[in-house]
Design goal:
Elements (H helix, E strand, L loop, with lengths): L7 E5 L3 H12 L4 E5 L2 H8 L6 E5 L7 H11 L4 E6 L4 H9 L4 E4 L5 H13 L2 H15 L7 H14 L5 E4 L6 H11 L7 E5 L5 H9 E2 L11 E2 L1 H4 L4 E5 L6 H13 L1 E3 L6 E3 L3 E6 L3 H6 L5 H7 L2 E4 L10 H11 L6 E2 L1 H9 L5 H16 L5 E2 L6 H4 L3 H7 L5 H6 L1 H5 L2 H4 L1 H17 L6 H26 L4 H8 L3 H11 L5
Parallel strand pairs: 1-2, 1-3, 3-4, 4-5, 6-13, 6-14, 7-10, 10-13, 15-16
Antiparallel strand pairs: 8-9, 11-12
Length: 502
C-alpha cells in the first residue's frame, strides 16, 4: 500500500489550463503537486524535494521537453516521466521515450480513465519489474537480446510503444529477426488475444499481393472461383505484418497509403468499402529513406509507416551474444546436454554471419543433427566448411558471399561457393543426408527436415537463376523471361538472398 501523501508530482507545461486541470486532478488523488510554466521555473523545482513523477510538455516558451528531461534524469534519475504531446508531435514524444521518458500521453485528455491508469502505473510499477516482464515475453517469442546494451534498449522501447495504437517500422538486415520483433510487439500489446498475420511483399506478384492484402470477390478475375477475405480484413482487430515493404510496387504503395490514411479499402472486383482497425508493423532490409531519395518508395507512405522506427543490429555487431543465443537454441531443441568446444566457439565468434540469426539457427540445427548419437560436444568438424575455413579478417578482406547478385554473375565468386560449383554433387549429398535421417533410429525434429527442404529450394533456385543469367550474358530481363518470372521478382531474389550462407 503506497502512501499518496508522500507522492510528489511535478507538472511542467506553459498551458495554464492544462496545469490547473492536472493539479486539481492529482491533488484529489492525494498527491503533492508542484507546477512550473517554463524551463526556468522547472530548474527551481528540480533543486527541491525529489519527485516520483514528472509530467512534461514537449514545447515550452524558453526550452523544450528534451532539455528538461535530460536535466531531470541527471538530478533525479529515479523520477518517472510522462511526456505530454499533441497528436502532431507523437514522433517527438517517441524520441523522448528513446531518451529515457517512461511514456507519453496525447493532449487533450479525452479519456480520464486512461490518464488515471497511466499515472497509477507510473507511480506503482517498479522499472525493474517492467523490464523483467519485457524480457519474459521476449523469451517466449524468441527475441533474444543477450547482454548487448543497444539490443536491450531496443527491447525496452518496443515494449513501451507496444500498447500504443501506432504504426511501427522495423529495419534490419535479412535474418536479424524482424518478424520475431513484430510478434513481440503484438504479444506485448492490447491486441495479444487477436490475430497476428504476416505477408512478404516481395514474394508475390503485384496482382497476387493486391488480392492477398485486400481480398477479392468471386469472379473478379480468372481463377477467382470464390470470395476471399484479404489480410486487412482478417487482421481487423489484430496486427498485420508487412515484411519487405520496399518491394511493394508503386500501385500497391498507393493503395496501402489510402488504407493508412482512411482505414478504408475495397476488395478486388468490388465497389463496397470496408474498414479495418488492423495495426500495421512494416519491415524492410532496405533503408527506406534512401529508397525515397532514389524515387523507389513513396515519401508520404514512409511518413505514415514510420511513426516509430526500430533498427535491429546485425549479428556481427553483437558477437558477444553468440553464447546466449546458442543456449536459447539448444534449450529450444531440448539439447541442453550439448556443448561447443572452445575452438568451435572461436570460429563462431570470428565468423561474420551475413545471414545473421537465421544463419546461426541453421548452423546450430545442422550441428545438433549431425552429432546425434555420436557425441555431446560440438567440435569444429560439425560446423559448415565455410565457417571452418574463414575468419572475420579474411571475410572483411575478401567480402565472400557479401552480395548474391554479384556472386551469381561473377564466375570467380560463384566458384568459391561449393553449393554452386556442382549442383549434381549437392543433390546427391542432400539425398543421402535425408535418407540417413529416414533410416536413423533416433528421432529427428521435423523442423530439421523442413529446413533441409527450404535449403534445397534455395540452392536449386539459385543454380537455375545462375544458369539463366549465364545463358543471357547477365541480362536480367532476358533471364527473368526464361524463368517465367518478372524482373521485379528476380530483383527481389537478388536482394533477399544476397546474404545467404549457401
Amino acid at each position: 500500500m503506497r502512501d499518496d501523501s508522500m507522492t510528489h508530482v511535478a507538472i511542467i507545461d506553459d498551458e495554464r489550463e492544462v496545469c490547473t486541470f492536472l493539479e486539481h486532478f492529482l491533488t484529489s488523488k492525494g498527491f503533492t503537486v508542484k507546477v512550473a510554466y517554463s524551463g526556468e521555473q522547472s530548474d527551481l523545482l528540480m533543486d527541491g524535494p525529489p519527485f516520483q513523477l514528472a509530467m512534461i510538455d514537449v514545447k515550452l516558451p524558453d526550452t523544450n521537453g528534451f532539455a528538461i528531461l535530460k536535466k531531470l534524469k541527471e538530478k533525479q534519475p529515479n523520477c518517472k516521466v510522462i511526456i505530454m504531446t499533441g497528436f502532431s508531435t507523437v514522433k517527438t514524444a517517441i524520441e523522448a521515450i528513446k531518451l529515457g521518458a517512461n511514456d507519453y500521453i496525447e493532449k487533450p485528455f479525452d479519456d480520464l480513465d486512461q490518464l488515471e491508469a497511466l499515472i497509477d502505473e507510473m507511480i506503482t510499477h517498479d522499472a525493474s519489474i517492467v523490464q523483467s516482464e519485457a524480457n519474459r515475453l521476449a523469451g517466449e517469442v524468441g527475441f533474444i537480446t543477450g547482454q548487448n546494451e543497444e539490443m536491450n534498449h531496443l527491447l525496452t522501447i518496443a515494449y513501451k510503444i507496444a500498447k500504443k495504437n501506432i504504426n511501427v517500422l522495423i529495419q534490419g538486415e535479412t535474418g536479424t529477426g524482424k518478424e520475431v520483433l513484430a510478434k513481440f510487439i503484438h504479444q506485448a500489446s492490447c491486441r495479444a488475444d487477436q490475430t497476428f498475420i504476416g505477408v512478404n511483399c516481395g514474394a508475390l506478384s503485384e496482382s497476387l499481393l493486391e488480392s492477398e492484402l485486400f481480398g477479392h470477390e468471386k469472379g473478379a478475375f480468372t481463377g477467382a472461383t470464390q470470395l476471399r477475405k484479404g489480410l486487412f480484413e482478417l487482421a481487423n482487430s489484430g496486427t498485420l505484418f508487412l515484411d519487405e515493404i520496399a518491394e511493394a510496387s508503386p500501385a500497391i504503395q498507393v493503395k496501402l497509403l489510402r488504407v493508412l490514411e482512411t482505414r478504408e479499402f475495397m476488395r478486388v472486383g468490388s465497389e463496397k468499402v470496408f474498414r479495418t482497425n488492423a495495426r500495421i508493423v512494416a519491415a524492410s532490409h532496405v533503408n527506406l529513406d534512401e529508397a525515397v531519395r532514389e524515387k523507389k518508395f513513396r515519401q508520404d507512405l514512409l511518413y505514415r509507416l514510420n511513426v516509430v522506427k526500430l533498427e535491429i543490429l546485425p549479428l556481427r555487431k553483437r558477437i558477444d551474444d553468440i553464447s546466449t543465443l546458442l543456449s536459447h537454441f539448444l534449450e529450444k531443441y531440448d539439447a541442453q546436454h550439448i556443448t561447443f568446444t572452445t575452438e568451435a566457439m572461436r570460429l563462431l565468434e570470428t565468423y561474420d554471419w551475413p545471414g545473421n540469426i537465421r544463419e546461426l539457427v541453421n548452423v546450430v540445427t545442422r550441428a545438433i543433427t549431425l552429432s546425434e548419437g555420436e557425441t555431446t560436444q560440438i567440435t569444429k568438424d560439425y560446423l559448415p566448411c565455410y565457417i571452418q575455413n574463414t575468419n572475420k579478417k579474411e571475410y572483411e578482406e575478401k567480402e565472400v558471399k557479401r552480395s548474391f547478385s554479384e556472386s551469381i554473375i561473377n564466375h570467380e565468386k560463384s566458384r568459391t561457393n561449393p553449393y554452386f560449383s556442382d549442383l549434381k554433387k549437392y543433390l546427391d549429398n542432400w539425398n543421402a543426408e535425408l535418407l540417413f535421417y529416414w533410416q536413423s533410429d533416433q528421432a529427428v525434429p521435423l523442423e530439421v527436415i523442413t529446413e533441409k527442404i527450404k535449403e534445397l529450394e534455395d540452392v536449386t533456385g539459385k543454380a537455375f537463376i545462375k544458369k539463366a543469367l549465364n545463358s543471357t550474358l547477365g541480362n536480367r530481363k532476358e533471364a527473368a523471361d526464361l524463368l517465367k518470372i518478372t524482373p521485379r521478382q528476380l530483383r527481389y531474389l537478388f536482394k533477399e538472398k544476397k546474404h545467404s550462407p549457401l
